[in-house]
Amino acid sequence: MAEVEEVTEGCHLPVLRRNQENEDEWPLAEILSVKDISGRKLFYVHYIDFNKRLDEWVTHDRLDLKKIQFPKKEAKTPTKNGLPGSRPSSPERDVKRKVEVVSPATPIPAPTETTQASVFPQNGSARRAVAAQPGRKRKSNCLGTDEDSQDSLDGIPSAPRMTGSLVSDRSHDDIITRMKNIECIELGRHRLKPWYFSPYPQELTTLPILYLCEFCLKYVKSLKCLQRHLTKCDLRHPPGNEIYRKGTISFFEIDGRKNKSYSQNLCLLAKCFLDHKTLYYDTDPFLFYVMTEYDSKGFHIVGYFSKEKESTEDYNVACILTLPPYQRRGYGKLLIEFSYELSKVEGKTGTPEKPLSDLGLLSYRSYWSQTILEILMNLKSETGERPQITINEISEITSIKKEDVISTLQYLNLINYYKGQYILTLSEDIVEGHERAMLKRILRIDSKCLHFTPKDWSKRGKCTVRVLRSLNVSLL
Ligand SMILES: [Zn+2]
Q1: Segment 317-363, tens digit of pLDDT
Q2: What is the SS3 assignment for 250?
Q3: Which residues have CB less than 5 Å away from ligand 1 (the ion)?
Q4: Measuring CA to CA, how many Å separate 416 from each of 365, 390, 410?
Q5: 356: closest CA among 171, 161, 132, 180?
Q6: What pLDDT score does 125 carry?
Q7: Distance 214 CA to ligand 1 centre (A)
Q8: What angle do CA 450, 453, 456 make, to 5 degrees?
Q9: Of 94, 107, 260, 344, which is most buried by a Cβ count within 10 Å?
Q10: How far apart are CA 473 and CA 332, in angstroms?
Q11: Which pLDDT value is given to residue 176?
């Protein structure tokens, strides 16, 4: 049996963890780092085939030293570029080997845009495919800056951008960015435990708690600093224009060029919970749509999505995130619904930039399914014949890009070929499942409450400083 001292970076061995059912299990893990705190060794482990957000520091008694696999000789060299071996990322273990059916690049044999699809209910159950996340992850490059320079990050060189995409190459994939570096973030009344690395200044990564102003998202190193900041900061909502309000939910549109400091701080916070896309400090080409919930203290950030001002690839969302305290409550779908409402006003169809995170994909799948099923089930037959609709019509009504409509119909397994025609078959299971899901979907976007005029960014001089105030709904 190996000794604790022999456990080094790159070793693989079973590590004890508690699963969701509160049971102990021993999945294989990779040691990413070892540290010594007053004579006590701690090991940073990544569980192979589990999402990186579960990575953690563990003590030696959780390591199964009997089954240790030492790193292979040739594997030791590229320490700076990450250790070979694990390329993790399935979301949860139970879906890890299922089929990925999402990629719009997947050749689609069945209906074309001109295909007329008929809809009729059918008895019996339809089998559902389960989508899993593509096993890809993206990294961000590290940025060192001190607290006082938050308002002037302009001078920091950003990595070359690739056609407006937030997706980076893998060249910055090093051991540092594979490990979460912030222990805890205090944001308003919430304490957040980051899931992934975020390039906050290095000197702040040793703090037990990083304090953020919940309105301007400025980060400071202590509660005292935060209290001092709050006496000066008079923001009670995100900067930019409030373009939507219904009940306590509002959306603010923030221009990444006009509100650079806020946008950069938002990216830093978001990176703690997004691993597959990289933020760049060049926020100019992006708009940020921040969703807030109002109470007597102000407009509290719930989530956001970013969007390129001009997308050549019909992207209507770049990054999208619901902050953890608000997850699993329907807010993610509300963000997605809002992004399509903007596309409807723009008269375009749109799609989120790929790759999606595991959670992002689940939300999109569910949103697409519900939106398309809603349309199919409301189709009226005029002559007693089966009602008919084209893929193009579904796409135009919903602003969901055609490829996503098709992949959703395939995912729901609705498409059948019958007597030379493509037919959509809605089983009772599908109909009942949909009705149940819609009863639970209480949070909805009300398009009447959206006050949004799309801008034609291609006509705007990129270097010209202009004051743009197309719309400013006054607050309270
Ligand atoms: Zn502030």
Answers
A1: 999 999 999 999 999 999 999 999 999 999 999 999 998 988 899 99
A2: strand
A3: 213, 216, 233
A4: 20, 15, 10
A5: 132
A6: 34
A7: 7
A8: 150
A9: 260
A10: 24
A11: 80
Is residue 266 within 8 Å of residue 150, measured between CB atoms? no
At residue 74, the pLDDT reads 61
CA distance 388 to 117: 6
Torsion sign (Cα): 405, 446, 360, 219: positive
- Which amino acid makes up residue 411? Y
Task: Identify the pLDDT of residue 458.
Answer: 82
- Please list the ranges in the chain whose pLDDT falls under 70: 74-173, 278-280, 460-476
Taking the centre of ligand 1 as the mean of its atom positions, its distance from the CA of residue 182, in whole angstroms, is: 20
Q: Which residues contact 72 (CB under 8 A, 6 or more apart)?
A: none
Residue 343 region by backbone torsions, left for phi larger than 0, else alpha for psi between -120 and 50, else beta: alpha
Active site residues: 353
Task: Work out the mean pLDDT of the chain and round it to a whole number.
Answer: 80
Sign of CA dihedral 204, 205, 206, 207: positive
pLDDT (0 to 100) of residue 420: 85
pTM for this one? 0.76
Reduced 3-state DSSP string for 347-387: CCCEEECCCCCHHHHHHHHHHHHHHHHHHHHCCCCCCCCCC
Angle at 373 between CA 367 and CA 375, to 5 degrees: 105
**Counting every residue, how long is the chain?**
476
Q: How far apart are CA 409 and CA 430, in angstroms?
A: 12
* 231 CA to centre of ligand 1 in angstroms: 9
Give the integer Cα–Cα distance in Å for 160 and 179: 24
DSSP 8-state assignment for residue 110: S
How far is ligand 1, taken at its centre, from the CA of residue 248, in Å? 21
CA–centroid distance, 217 to ligand 1, in Å, is: 6
Q: How far is the CA of 185 from the centre of ligand 1 (A)?
A: 15
